[in-house]
What does this fold into?
Amino acid sequence: MNKALWLLTASLLLAEPLAAQQGPSEKSPETSSPIQAGKDYHSFANPDEIRVTHLDLDLTADFDARQLKGSVTLSVKREDKDATALVLDTRALDILNVSAEGQPVDYTLGKTDAELGTPLKISLPAGADTVSIQYETSPKASGVQWLSPVQTAGKKHPFLFTQAQATHARSFIPLQDSPKVRVTYEANIQTPESLLAVMSAANTPNTPRDGDYSFSMPQPIPSYLIALAIGDLKFKAMGERTGVYAEPSMLDAAASEFEDTEDMLEATEEKYGPYSWDRYDLLILPPSFPFGGMENPRLSFITPTVIAGDKSLVSLIAHELAHSWSGNTVTNATWRDLWLNEGFTTYLTYRIMEMIYGHDRYKKEAVLGYQDLMADIDALPAKDQILAIDLRGRNADDVFSNIPYEKGALFLREIEQKIGRDNFDAFLTQYFEDFAFQSITTDTFIDYLDKTLLADYPEKLSEARIRTWIFEPGIPKGAPKPESDAFVNIDKTRSAWLDGEISAADIMTGDWTVHEWLYFLNNMPDTLSDTQLKALDDAFALTSTQNNEIAHSWLMIAVKNTYKAAYPRLHNYLVNIGRNKLVKPLYRELAKTKDGKAFAKKAFEQAKPGYHPLTIKANEGFVND
Ligand code: BES
Ligand code: ZN
It folds into this structure.
């Protein structure tokens, strides 16, 4: 993952930390008692008393009203036989009716917390093991984006997609919205006849388009992995178990960009054990999708901004695929434990990329990731540099920095180096098997290490060192430091150019991949002259690069140095891309000067109708006075 800056203000997606608001949830970390491992501080639900195990969804997508309307029937299991109330999470849902076994039952909506939403408390009659709720979503649901036709590639049909991680499933389904609660689900989705619905479930690629679609997810998954998209979608197979859904005009480009997906799937299975989810398909979303990718099981949701034409950004696919093992099969129990999910996945991503594209690319991607990590270590307060982060009283999305991703991966790389790759791979395979379809805490992982690697390699690993990695800020002394020979030359070239020894035209970029470009640009000094920028731009047409990552790095430099020649592209970039990682650092940088802020405000106002609610929330603070 690069562009550390997207994560620097820790309140990544939502504006204000919970602690600053009124709410029933938690006291601030400073004043509260020791953290309770396994307690989900971001859900009102009571799975320890009554646990939801299965959902039956029956929803109609009303594109005119921008609402999902219908019902969910929840199957429950009583964990405490005396419990009489089922508590669910909701956010901005209109609850119309609640019944159990066909009879209306009492329910109350509790006090609304600005971040957590509203608890829904349902009286469960003795013996009842299902509850049905009729409800409608808000047109502004935080986890749903309704796109008008002009916001799609084809411009003719509307589009809808959901994004549930971290705590947004509750904005489109009343449920126990905690990663420690796993459910199976079935769904019936009604859409306009010309559109196709897809879900994070078993999809039927060539199902007739009739506006009536059924899905089944037979493996238990956490709520943040429930996902739905509806649009003018077509399917193209890439391999036996892999394929891509996209709007028709994007389909071929996507299928060829991601044609190595089947190989990635096979290589990962060979290394880390069987793929548990049957098919692995990709869904290409419109550019307003707020993330790079989302690992919705069986169907990863992917930003179109990585279709670069040369497979240079496909580590994103390796990443979302890797989540099928680390994350979807073995899940973090609470958001504090997210590093078990993203750290393991980042480690696996590097390994998959190496298996498919070789050692040189592996080394380069590892260096870029390491640089992102170091930027966060410099910028984040110590408490946010801890893998097992204390999120009490904070928004769950605060955990999303390079720390869980790259620090988590570096920790695993250290273990790998100490005990040897084959041994570590064998450990990971066993770990994925032992915890398959479970949601685990950091403490469970440490207990497991105690019984496995720490027992097997006492002379190579120590629990103290492992605890330092997990519970202390920063990077422990002696940690691995990824290196790449290819980048040594880039450093030399950059210095020679900066020192005036060579001109831009003399820089031999013929065999540079996106990685060389990113390394070259990301390590420029903060200040460059207009002449220098113009020379680079003249030589390499950076302002018009079609690679969105290179464009991002270049535009960051342009903003830092007010290089006006790039501003029309910058405006376009901000208006047409809603991927937060790419736009947020630009807004933040622009907001540092008065003129920059005025420019940002203009772009933001134009872009806003097309941005996802999360992208709006993450960036409006930069443009508003
Ligand atoms: N699960 C995350 C996406 C996510 C992050 C959703 C934060 C909600 C909140 C996904 O697997 C991810 O990590 N995506 C990255 C890509 C990656 C290559 C690091 C992204 O979207 O940039
Ligand atoms: Zn991820």
In short: Confidence is low (pLDDT under 50) at residues 1-30. The two ends are 31 Å apart (CA to CA).
